[in-house]
Amino acid sequence: EAAILATSQNYPIVPLGGGQAYTYGTAGFRMKAELLAPICFRVGLLAFLRSAFMNSQTIGVMVTASHNPAPDNGVKIVDPMGEMLEQDWEKYATALVNAATDQELVKIFNRIASELKINLKLPTKVICGRDTRPSGPKLVAALTDALAATNTEFINYGWLTTPQLHYLVRATNTEGNPLSYGKVSEDGYYEKLADAFIRAMNGRKINGTLTVDCANGIGAPKLIKFLKSLPQDKVNFIVKVVNDNVVKPDVLNLNCGADFVKTKQRAPLSPEPVPSGRSCSFDGDADRLIYYWTDAEKRFSMLDGDRISSLAALFLGNLVEGAGLKDELRIGVVQTAYANGASTAYISQHLKLPVICTPTGVKHLHHVAQNFDIGIYFEANGHGTVLFSPDALSALKTTAPQSPAQKDCLDILLALSDLINQTVGDAISDMLLVEVILAHKGWTLSDWAMTYMDLPNRLVRIEVGDKDLFKTTDAERRLSRPQGAQDEIDNEVKKFKNARSFARASGTENACRVYAEAATWSEANELAERVARIIE
Ligand code: NG1
Ligand code: ZN
């Protein structure tokens, strides 16, 4: 306690003006990096409490601002199984960070400990990673000070992608037990992926070169390490890594990366695209993935999170059928309201798989996906993964194949359960999944895009006086407040064919978002503008 009080003096919290408080949002705490050191110190205290509360299990802390501009940074906590911090604890994070003085901080710290009956004498352990932002080391230093003040064992892994940190947290907590997630090292992560990738390929060949835009972020050096660890005699995977400048801080996420490609609906400004070449983009911490190509006429086509999700659903559904487990394993897909309506129709009507819609933010999707034996979830922005339940894993391991074809399906499914990150969306792992599927199907990106036609759509960001006036129901698809607004939206939607539109307050920015889709581009635009006028 004395140590906390003494160290805390070095990290005075900067009050936000206008009665505003810091909040632990969808992505933890995220803002201009200058404000973050005291927040990281306090998040360190919370990580200590969480580790003690979880009976000395290891907790992770990731320092990153993902796809946001280089001057931003952020910090978030990873739970023992590699999942995001349990939602119930977000309020404790918010309470600690908003304590106005050092004394109040200690008071809140003690109040949380006694409220949750946490034994503060237990040994505790925290591991951390950070992206390539230059502000990272100072923020990790603040975290280190908090962990020293609480006598917490601490490993700083330095540069990691976000999903690598999630991997390491789970691997640490399952080390030496039958559910071991892999070796507790960065190399262990590459070994696990490389081995699973080769098994999942099952002798198939990959066509052509894949160009990977790493957003000038952490994905670049990590992807290069992975490729070095991949035995080239076992799989012919030719990758060209571009936008890999992690030395010049201001180019991070600048005119490149998954968020740029998805929101601007265009290829990165550089390099010049190879006509009809296969490309994909990671975001700044390598947890999002978007595929695309530009044809000889310079027409751009994109395959986003909804496309990855429906591709995975198609392939996994066929494998489960081929493995003879169709009646045993429940496959389902989880999306948000931003998923293109054509993808929802394709999955539910053509693939005949259940689709569930949840509020925005991967933690919501993740939890719902866990209710399936094979739960596929992606946000349209390219963040997502596929979860295999313990029942699914044991069925795959214990089913005795009656034919070589059935054995192949079982082997490939098991390989995919190792290849696909089970903790969080992972651009490297998801990219390998897509490459496996395309190789098995012998598909180009345009073959993949032909599975269905996306509905034209438009997303608009609207500055509003107070976004908290906007409340939603039905997984954010309808407004319950302000009163009457939803009736007005319904009234506009009615006037268009195949149309859908909704408005909600952003969870990460001080703004509202309006989404609209319709049968044609001009109608989607027109509908978005009309609904935007209702919101303004
Ligand atoms: P908000 O700002 O709540 O719409 C955005 C993205 C989400 C999610 C979070 C966290 C859209 C429309 N929204 O949320 O998908 O990724 O950021 O990064 O893309
Ligand atoms: Zn990210």
Automatic annotation (TrEMBL):
<dbReference type="InterPro" id="IPR005843">
    <property type="entry name" value="A-D-PHexomutase_C"/>
</dbReference>
<dbReference type="InterPro" id="IPR049023">
    <property type="entry name" value="AMG1_II"/>
</dbReference>
<dbReference type="GO" id="GO:0000287">
    <property type="term" value="F:magnesium ion binding"/>
</dbReference>
<dbReference type="Pfam" id="PF21405">
    <property type="entry name" value="AMG1_II"/>
</dbReference>
<keyword id="KW-0479">Metal-binding</keyword>
<dbReference type="GO" id="GO:0071555">
    <property type="term" value="P:cell wall organization"/>
</dbReference>
<feature type="binding site">
    <location>
        <begin position="379"/>
        <end position="381"/>
    </location>
    <ligand>
        <name>substrate</name>
    </ligand>
</feature>
<feature type="binding site">
    <location>
        <position position="513"/>
    </location>
    <ligand>
        <name>substrate</name>
    </ligand>
</feature>
<keyword id="KW-0413">Isomerase</keyword>
<dbReference type="InterPro" id="IPR005844">
    <property type="entry name" value="A-D-PHexomutase_a/b/a-I"/>
</dbReference>
<comment type="similarity">
    <text>Belongs to the phosphohexose mutase family.</text>
</comment>
<dbReference type="InterPro" id="IPR016066">
    <property type="entry name" value="A-D-PHexomutase_CS"/>
</dbReference>
<dbReference type="InterPro" id="IPR036900">
    <property type="entry name" value="A-D-PHexomutase_C_sf"/>
</dbReference>
<keyword id="KW-0597">Phosphoprotein</keyword>
<dbReference type="Pfam" id="PF21404">
    <property type="entry name" value="AMG1_III"/>
</dbReference>
<dbReference type="Pfam" id="PF02878">
    <property type="entry name" value="PGM_PMM_I"/>
</dbReference>
<dbReference type="InterPro" id="IPR016657">
    <property type="entry name" value="PAGM"/>
</dbReference>
<feature type="domain" description="Alpha-D-phosphohexomutase C-terminal">
    <location>
        <begin position="459"/>
        <end position="533"/>
    </location>
</feature>
<feature type="domain" description="Phosphoacetylglucosamine mutase AMG1">
    <location>
        <begin position="205"/>
        <end position="289"/>
    </location>
</feature>
<feature type="domain" description="Alpha-D-phosphohexomutase alpha/beta/alpha">
    <location>
        <begin position="102"/>
        <end position="176"/>
    </location>
</feature>
<dbReference type="GO" id="GO:0006048">
    <property type="term" value="P:UDP-N-acetylglucosamine biosynthetic process"/>
</dbReference>
<keyword id="KW-0460">Magnesium</keyword>
<comment type="pathway">
    <text>Nucleotide-sugar biosynthesis; UDP-N-acetyl-alpha-D-glucosamine biosynthesis; N-acetyl-alpha-D-glucosamine 1-phosphate from alpha-D-glucosamine 6-phosphate (route I): step 2/2.</text>
</comment>
<feature type="binding site" description="via phosphate group">
    <location>
        <position position="66"/>
    </location>
    <ligand>
        <name>Mg(2+)</name>
    </ligand>
</feature>
<comment type="function">
    <text>Catalyzes the conversion of GlcNAc-6-P into GlcNAc-1-P during the synthesis of uridine diphosphate/UDP-GlcNAc, which is a biosynthetic precursor of chitin and also supplies the amino sugars for N-linked oligosaccharides of glycoproteins.</text>
</comment>
<feature type="binding site">
    <location>
        <position position="285"/>
    </location>
    <ligand>
        <name>Mg(2+)</name>
    </ligand>
</feature>
<keyword id="KW-0119">Carbohydrate metabolism</keyword>
<feature type="binding site">
    <location>
        <position position="283"/>
    </location>
    <ligand>
        <name>Mg(2+)</name>
    </ligand>
</feature>
<feature type="binding site">
    <location>
        <begin position="504"/>
        <end position="508"/>
    </location>
    <ligand>
        <name>substrate</name>
    </ligand>
</feature>
<dbReference type="GO" id="GO:0004610">
    <property type="term" value="F:phosphoacetylglucosamine mutase activity"/>
</dbReference>
<feature type="domain" description="Alpha-D-phosphohexomutase alpha/beta/alpha">
    <location>
        <begin position="59"/>
        <end position="101"/>
    </location>
</feature>
<feature type="domain" description="Phosphoacetylglucosamine mutase AMG1">
    <location>
        <begin position="304"/>
        <end position="443"/>
    </location>
</feature>
<dbReference type="GO" id="GO:0005975">
    <property type="term" value="P:carbohydrate metabolic process"/>
</dbReference>
<dbReference type="InterPro" id="IPR049022">
    <property type="entry name" value="AMG1_III"/>
</dbReference>
<keyword id="KW-0961">Cell wall biogenesis/degradation</keyword>
<feature type="active site" description="Phosphoserine intermediate">
    <location>
        <position position="66"/>
    </location>
</feature>
<dbReference type="InterPro" id="IPR016055">
    <property type="entry name" value="A-D-PHexomutase_a/b/a-I/II/III"/>
</dbReference>
<dbReference type="Pfam" id="PF00408">
    <property type="entry name" value="PGM_PMM_IV"/>
</dbReference>
<feature type="binding site">
    <location>
        <position position="287"/>
    </location>
    <ligand>
        <name>Mg(2+)</name>
    </ligand>
</feature>
<protein>
    <recommendedName>
        <fullName>Phosphoacetylglucosamine mutase</fullName>
        <ecNumber>5.4.2.3</ecNumber>
    </recommendedName>
</protein>
